[in-house]
Batch of 2 targets.
Target 1
Amino acid sequence: MKSRLVAMSYSLVGVLLVCGVWALLSSVVAPDLPSPLKTWEESRLYILSPWEKRGEMDQGILRMAAYSLVRVAKGFLLAIMIGAPLGFLLGSSPVFHRMFDPTIQVLRPISPLAWLPLGLILFRQSEPAALFTIALCSMWPTVINTASGVRSIPQDYLNVARVLRLSRWKKFTNVWLPATLPYLFTGFRLSLGIAWLVIVAAEMLTGTPGVGGFLWQEYNSLIYSHILLCILTIGIVGFVLDRLMGMAEARLRSV
Amino acid sequence: MYTRPLEISSLSKVFETPAGRFTAIKDFNARIAPDEFVALLGHSGCGKSTVLAIVAGLQEATLGGVIIDGTEISGPGLDRALVFQSPSLLPWMSALDNVLLAVRQSHPKLPLSAQRDLAVRYLNLVGAGEYMRQMPAELSQGTQQRVAIARAFSQEPRFLLLDEPFGMLDSMTRADLQDLLLRLWRQSPKTVLLVTHDVDEALYLCDRIILMTDGPEARVGMDLRVTLARPRSRQGLLDDPEYFRLRGVVFKYLELHSRQFRKEAA
Ligand SMILES: Nc1ncnc2c1ncn2[C@@H]1O[C@H](COP(=O)(O)OP(=O)(O)O)[C@@H](O)[C@H]1O
Ligand SMILES: [Mg+2]
C-alpha cells in the first residue's frame, strides 16, 4: 500500500513537471501554444458537461470519444474477424504462408493516410471508408501473432491430437485454439492500439464527429486549446484501452 | 482374441538434414506377439523413439513398415495408445477432461455419463481419482504421468506404446509407476512396447528385450527373452541368479556397443 502511494506520487511529480515545461514553452518559445491554464479554461465546458450535444461538431468530450470508440470497435471487430482466421491459415499451412507472407509484409507498413482515399473510392461514403481503413491497418498484429502462435504449438500436443484421431474441428477447439489463445490476445491488444491510432487520421480526413474530427475542425477554426484537449483525450483513452486489454490478457494467462 | 503378431518389417528411416541424408534406422525387423510386454533398449540417440513413433503412426517409414493383422499401418490409430516421455496432458484441461477426451474418441457410442464413469474409473485405477478436477500444472510430475497412463488405458487400446515414460521421475515414484503399469497390464492384457534405457526397468517389467545397435543405421542387435517367472518382486529378483545372468548379458552387450560406437566416432 505504501509503495503504491510512493509510486503514485512519483507519477504526479512527473505530470507536474511536464505541465511546467508545457507552461514554459507556451510563455517563452511558442506563443501560439495555449498554456495549461488557458487550455483548461477554454475546455472546461467540454470536460464538465462531457455528454452534452450542442451541435453536430460541438459536443462534450466523452460523447466525442464515444463516437470514436464505437467506430474503432467496429473496425477492430472487422480486423480480428478477418485477421484471426487468416493467422490460423498462415500458421497451419506452410504453402499458404509462402504464398501470402510477402504480400502481407508489403501491406503491413502502409499508412492509414494511403488507405483512406482508396476506401473513399471503393465505398463513396466516409463511414465505411473509415472502417475499411481501421480494419486494414490494425489487423496485421493479429494475423502475425496468431500465425506464430499456431507455429509454436508444442509438438507433444499436436501428437496427442493425432494419436487420439481428433477431427479437424475437435483439434481446433481442443488444441489449436487454447494453445494459441495467449498469442491471439497479444495480437488483439496490439491491433486495438493501432485501430485507435488510425481513428484520428480516418476522422480527420472524413470529417465525421469524434475526437479526431473535432480536433481537425478546431484546428481549422484556430481554437488551439481544443486541439490539446483532443490530444490528451486520445492519449488517455488509448491508455485505458491498452490497460483493459492487458487485464483481459493477464486473466487469460492465469487460467 | 488377437492371435497375429505386430510385425515391424525391414524398417528403415532416413532423415533429410541440412548436413545431408541421415539413415537413423536400417533394416529393423521384429515381431511382437499379442499381449507380450517388450522393451526396446539401446543407447541414447540410437533410434528407439523413432521406431516407436513409426509404430504409433506419427512418423512415416522411409522403407518397410509396420504390419498389424496383415495390413500395413498408415498413420495413428486408436488401437495404439501412446505415453510420451514428457507429461503431455493438455494444460488447459483438468485431469478428468484430458482422460475424457480420449474416452470420447475411443468410445464414441457410449452415452456421456458412461464416458464420464469410464474416465473416472481409470483415474481411480491409477490412483489419481482425487486429483481429477485439477489442472495438470497443479499436479506433480508423477501424478501427471499417472493421468497420462490413465488416458492411454482408458482408450482400451490393443497396443500400448511407451517412450521412456518414467525417465523424468525420481526413483521412488518410478518404482511406484512401474508397479502400477504391471498391475494394469495384468488386469487388462495388451501388447506393450516400452522404450527405455534403464536395464533394470526392462528386466523387471518385460517378457523380452530387443536390444538395438547404435545408430546411424541402427537395427536389432540382440533379442533377449527374459526368463524370469511372474509375478516378480524387486526383492525376489535380487535373490535370483538368472536375473544377474540376464543383467550381465545386457550390460555386456551395451558396453560392447558403446565401445564400438566410440571407435567409429573417433
Ligand atoms: N526429425 C529428425 N531429423 C533429423 N534427425 C533426427 C530426427 N529425429 C531423430 N533424429 C536422429 O535420429 C537418431 C535417433 O533419434 P531417437 O529416435 O530420438 O533416439 P532415442 O530415442 O534412441 O534416443 C538421433 O541421432 C537423432 O539425432
Ligand atoms: Mg528417445
Target 2
Amino acid sequence: MQHGGAGVSRQATPRSPRRVDTGAAGRLPVPFGQFIVKVHGRCNLACRYCYLYEGPDHTWRARPAAAAPAVLERTADRIAEHAAAHGLRDVALVLHGGEPLLAGVDRLAALADRVRDLVPADCTVHTTVQTNATLLTDARIAALALHGIRIGISLDGGLASHNTRRTDHAGRPSWPAASRGARLLADRHPDAYAGILTVVDPRTDPVEMYESLLALCPPALDLLLPHGNWTNPPPGLPGTGTAPAGPGSGRPTPYGDWLITVFDRWWPAAHRETRVRLFEECIALLLGLPAATESLGLDPVNAIVVETDGSIEQVDSLKSAYDTAAATGLDVFRHTFDDALGHPGVAARQAGADALAAACRACPLLTVCGGGHYAHRYRADNGFTNPSVYCADLERLVRHIADRLSDATAGAHR
Amino acid sequence: MSESTGNGGPGGGSSGGPDALPDLLELDLEALRTLDHPVLSEVVADLCGRAEQPREMLWGFNSAF
Ligand code: SF4
C-alpha cells in the first residue's frame, strides 16, 4: 500500500488522527481565530424569516444600534492581545451585523486598520464584511478593498423571485438594490468578492437556484440550512414527539434531496464553476482532513462574537434556540478572549464527540456529520444533546457525497 | 441535562458494519489530483495544505465568508 506523495498524504497509522481523536478530554482549549464584530446591530432589511430579529432572542433590543468607536478600539486591542498570547499567524476578522455597512465604510476601515496595526508583525489579518449588498456602491466597494476588506453577500438566490421575503421595513423588495450591488462587485471588483451565502429553501428548483447564483460569478458559495431545532422545527420538517430522525424512519428529506441535486449539478462539471463550502468541507472530512465549517464535522469552533455594546458572545446562530442563548456575561472592557475560552458554552463547542448525543456517538457518520450544526440540535427539554433536527437530511447528503467520491476515486492510489 | 433517546440517529457502529461510509481515508491526495475529474482535482488541490495548516485558519463561522 502506497502512502507516498509530496508530504500531503496523511499518516498510515493511525489512519487519520481525525478519526481516532474525536473527544476533547484533557485537551487545552483551541484559541479563537475568527472574530465576528457586530459593527451595526440593526438592518435596513426586515427579512421575514430572520433569526436575529424575528426569532426568540431579544437581546438586540437593549443594545446600541451602532458599535461606538471605543467599543471597536477595545475590540481591536483584545484581538491583538489574543493573537500575541497564542502566537497566531492568521486571524479572521468578520465585520457583521445587522447590516454592517450601516456603520459607514470609514468605521469599518478604521477597525480593520487598527487590528492589522496592533497584531504582531508575523500575524496576517483576513478581513471580510458580510452584507445584504443593498448598500454597495462603486465608491464603497473601492474603499473597502483599499483597506483590505473582502465582501461576502447574503442572498436567497439569484433571481427576483427567490428574494421576495427579503424586503425593507416598508415591505419593498430588496432585490433591485441587492442585485445591483452584487453585479457591481462581480463586474468591477472581483478581487474583493468573497462569495455568496444562501439559505436553502427546498421549495425552489435547486438547479435553477444554483445556476442563478452562478450568474453572479461568486468565487464561493455556501448553502446554509435554515435555523430550526426540535422544538421549533424548520419549514417542512417534523419536530419533537414525531417519528425518529434517522433513515428507516420514512421521514422525507427535502433538504437532503435539494442539496444532492445541486451537488450532482456541481460535481461533474468540466471545471469547478465555484467553490461550494458545504460540499467541499464534506469531501475534506470524508478524506480524513479537518473541516472549516460549523455545519459538519467534529472540529472545535474557534469563532467568537463581539456585540455592539462590547459584550462577548458565542456565535449568534444559537440565538435561534432561545433568548440569551449566546450570552457569556463577558465583555471586551473587563475581559480577555482567554476568559471566554473558559466559558462552558464555548468549551461545549470545542468538545468534539464528547458533547454529542449517544445516537451521534454511535453513528457511522459521526466523524463527517458530527451531529450537524450545534444550533440545530436544540430541544427545550434537554438542551443541545440531540442529533440534528436535520439528521435524516444530513445522512442523505453525506452518504451521497461519499458514494460519488468513492466512484470518482475508484482505482486511485492508496 | 439528559440525553435524548427519542430522536435516534442512523444507528450502527462508528466504524465498519453494513452502514459504514466507504473508507476514503487512505487515498493519496496527490494521486487524486491526477484523476480525470476536474472538480475533484481542484478541490483536492485546495485541501492539500490543510493537514499542515495552523488550526487558527480553519474558520468555520457559517454566517459569513
Ligand atoms: S452524526 Fe449526524 S447523521 Fe449521525 S445521528 Fe448524529 S445528526 Fe444524525
